[in-house]
Every structure is written in structure tokens, then in C-alpha cells.
Write a structure and sequence with these properties.
With about 60 residues, this protein is mostly helical. The protein has one domain. About 60% of the residues lie in helices and about 0% in strands. It has helices at about 1-5, 10-25, 30-35, 45-55. The protein is globular, with a radius of gyration of 12 Å. The termini are far apart.
Length: about 60
């Protein structure tokens, strides 16, 4: 998480690869929004992890 937060403006392929991996492993489809475009505030790495832990996939 800290790597992604620190990589703003970095290698786009590397960032996308890490984000896709996080989405697959966590089941949180909007994790990139929480990292890069949080609604009205900046989240710390710990706050993002807490959000992801609370985000669960719904089996259809």
C-alpha cells in the first residue's frame, strides 16, 4: 500500500499491475479510487487497509 501511495506519477504499468493484484486478492473493486481519488480527504495506508478489510465480495 505504501508503495502505491508513494508511486504517484511513476511507472503506469507497474502501478496498474499492483492495483490489479490488490483488486484480485482483496475483492475490493474500488481500491484504486480509495488510494488516488478519495472522496473529500486523504487516507493513510492504514485507513485504506481498514476499508479494504471491511469490503467484502458478494457472491452472485
Amino acid at each position: 500500500m505504501r508503495t502505491l501511495l508513494a508511486a504517484a506519477g511513476g511507472d503506469k504499468r507497474s502501478i496498474n499491475w499492483r492495483l490489479e493484484g490488490l483488486e484480485r486478492r482483496t475483492g475490493c473493486p474500488h481500491i484504486s479510487d480509495e488510494i488516488y481519488w478519495p472522496a473529500g480527504r486523504s487516507w493513510t495506508a492504514e485507513e485504506i487497509i481498514e476499508h479494504v478489510e471491511a469490503c467484502t465480495s458478494i457472491a452472485l
